[in-house]
Amino acid sequence: MARKEMIAMLLAGGQGSRLGVLTNKVAKPAVAFGGKYRIIDFPLSNCINSGVDTVGVLTQYRPLRLNSHIGIGIPWDLDRNIGGVTVLPPYEKSENSEWYTGTANAIYQNIEYMESFHPEYVLILSGDHIYKMDYELMLDFHKTNGAEVTIAVMPVPMEEASRFGIMITDENRRITEFEEKPAQPRSNLASMGIYIFNWKTLKDALIEMAQEPALDFGKHVIPHCHQKGAPLYAYEFNGYWKDVGTLSSYWEANMELIDLVPEFNLYEEYWKIYTKSEIQPPQYFSSDSVVERSIIGEGTNVYGQVYNSVIGCGVEIGKGTVVRDSIIMSNTKLGENCEIYKAIVAEDVTIGDNVALGIGDEVPNETAPHIYNQGLVTVGEKSSIPSGVKVGKNTVIYGCTEESDYDNFYLPGGRTLVKAGE
Amino acid sequence: MQELSKKRAIGAMPIAGSYRSIDFTLSNMSNSHIHKVAVLTQYNARSLNEHLNSSKWWDFGRKQGGLSVLAPVVNADRSSWYRGTIDAIYQNIDFLKKSHEPYVVIAPADCVYKLNFNKVIAYHVENNADITVVCHEVEQGIDVERYGILALDDDGRIVEFDEKPLQAKTNLVSCGIYVVRRRFLIEMIELSAQEERYDFVRDILMRYKDVKKFCGYNMKEYWRNIASVEDYFGTNMDFLKPEVRDYFFRQYPDIYSKVDDLPPAKYNYGASVRNSLISSGCIVNGVVEDSVVFKKSYIGNNCVIKNSIILNDVYIGDDCYIENCIVESRDTIKAGSRYVGEDGKIRIVLERNDRYDM
User: Fold this and answer.
1) Which site among B55, B249, B252, B293 would you substitute to test the A interface, given the most A Cβ atoms closer than 10 Å to its Cβ?
2) pLDDT digits over B303-340, tens only?
3) pLDDT in tens, B167-178
4) Cα torsion at B310, B316, B320, B326 (round to 10°)?
5) How far apart are CA A206 and CA A274, in angstroms?
6) Exposure of B133 by Cβ count < 10 A (0-12 exposed, 13-18 middle, 19+ buried)?
7) Could you tell me which residues of chain B have a Cβ less than 8 Å from any Cβ in chain A?
């Protein structure tokens, strides 16, 4: 019989629509981060580094990239005879087949998977945060306090607390009340969306609440457990934790990696972050290249200049091209004499020669100003931009664009250029 | 088919920033769909064993075949190191006898090349050869005296085979890669071992070349052996050429290596990198020109590295000057050091300072 003390369930089915065109074709956990990683690498690496070797990954939105990235879990040492990583998509049932309608509903639909490992504890994670955390310490806290549910929380500035789910605790960290995005927060302990449940507590709650539409942990399951009088505790986490849910926070988190000694340090000997590396050769710099304050992935060829940027693997940066304050993801090709300023260029993009991105003044984006802001130029994956084009700030480009899509080789600031079709 | 590769610890020599020399032969075998591979190790095999600790990277984790590492063993009637290449195979003759594949590819681990072994086997069969030797024409003027020198007749048959001659007659060198029928190999190895002859080149290839049919397969593509310091240095520097990188890194098929899970390379203020290769996990604060820097190296502020090879996990303190050097793996170079290989000679730097006692 298989038996695991704690198994993890990783919610990776969300689109992450606030990342705009970056998640048009991939789920948010599969979005590239920090040159060579994908966002899901962080929780997966945390699992194996914490001794959790059984992880169910719940997928729904655009799972192809995620599936091929995870494979059988070799990069994380999660290819196991017993346990390991299992991708769990929604499936058809003899009656009432449905998609995953909420975070807890997704877990509910996989009770059989969890049951097969006879766990004592289940760790619920989401696949869209950048952090390093030892879940074993959290489990110790859970056991010491005799908790049935432990919620990881982190202190946030009081003025930002109204954006989060807030936990109010007594002096022993036992949760007495919680508030979802309160106008007048009474505490600054924000839920990180990381939970440890006693398996029995979780199973009972899921079954009792099964009929609730869009069953959600924060909205339904946690209040339900609290109502029944289960001891809920808040585990305070004080390390680096970044929600990269918006384009601007995504850009900032990447830029923080290039600080001299970054707060989130990828170079630590212990707590390695693992990822699937398809490209292995070293990176090449030509004799007239310049590179400063940047991190660059494997197999990239730099013939131009790179400042304050995060560059992925297998990227080509042409002669005379200048890249500043930008994120260039893997396998993208930049032509010669381009100027790339404050841009997020996704994977497999082709940019011609003499292209300028991020010029002129800031104009609010015409279609989605809440997504495309901070002066960023966002280029979706597998797009192409023809030679000679100039592009303003707060713009977004997606699809294989041609000269005729631009007004006299110019896309003014704030414009959205999305070409339908493949 | 099955494989044997004779190895010196040289099989674990780092190449081109991210690879070990054995990766090239192992990847060629994997890409040629050879599923059963034995690596014969003996000399100082620790780093090689570490590198081969999983067969995943070359896709050799197979139920049928897979990767075996065969080191010399002591048993009731034998307790010696491998006395030569024949002896290495002879001591593992059971491995050959228990196999059922018709052909064996024998290849050294110290060469950098891409080769589809199936083409060599097809050539071997077509020529009805007993042994086929892969050979390569080196450029005029290159010192060939380290190699076996061949001369072929018009049908590709080897008519002359000189090992390390003082005066080479041709510029066709043996790559040390052989294709042979398994049963014929067992026969020759057992016969030679009985006669206490232990060297594959001298005691089989040269001794039998007139009575058996040995053919040469001329490989036209890039091939280099790394067994001397000059060749090792030159091979690494070849990867600064775009056509060499394109051939090995961009064109099908790929070369595979063990994945080290290192973060991307990082460049801080003051970094300047020109015509160089930098590998993952490096942190660069200084100037690097015309050099190859391997994984996980740290280059301090105001350093200048020119025309050098910095091997894995090297720490170079601030204000160092290094030119025409090979800096050995895991070295720690104190701040303000100066190492220069004079008169075009390559200097090998071995510095085992205490890294955290700055």
Assistant:
1) B249
2) 999 999 999 999 999 999 999 999 988 889 999 999 99
3) 778 889 999 999
4) -20
5) 32
6) buried
7) 16-19, 56, 240, 245, 248-249, 255-257, 259, 261, 263-281, 283, 288-289, 292-294
Please give the single-letter amino acid code of residue A308: N
Question: Smallest CA–CA separation between B44 and chain A, in Å?
Answer: 26
Phi, psi of A99 (to 5 degrees): -70, 175
B17/A284 Cα distance (integer angstroms): 10
Q: Do A292 and B267 touch (CB under 8 A)?
A: yes
Using the 8-state DSSP alphabet, how is residue A114 labeled? H
Domains of chain B (ranges plus CATH)? 2-249 (3.90.550.10), 266-349 (2.160.10.10)
CB-based contact A295 B265, cutoff 8 Å: yes
Please give, rounded to a whole number of angstroms, the shortest distance from the CA of B68 to a CA of chain A. Answer: 20
B44, burial (CB in 10 Å: exposed 0-12, middle 13-18, buried 19+): exposed
Distance from CA of A330 to the nearest CA of B (A): 12
**Å from A275 to nearest chain B CA?**
7
CA angle B291, B292, B298 (to 5 degrees): 100
B248, B259, B263 member nearest A267 (Cβ): B263
Angstrom CA distances, B160 to A233, B135, B150, B152, stand at 82, 13, 5, 7
ipTM over 0.95: no
User: Model's pTM, two decimal places?
Assistant: 0.91
Q: Do A284 and B276 touch (CB under 8 A)?
A: yes
| Average confidence score pLDDT of chain A | 94
A283·B293 Cβ contact <8 A: no
The residues, any chain, with a CB within 8 Å of residue B358's CB and separated by 6 or more, are B317, B335
Residue from the list B256, B259, B268 with its beta carbon closest to the beta carbon of A293: B268
Do the beta carbons of residue B31 and residue B116 sit within 8 Å? Answer: yes
Question: With left for phi above 0 and alpha for psi between -120 and 50, is residue A407 left, alpha or beta?
Answer: beta
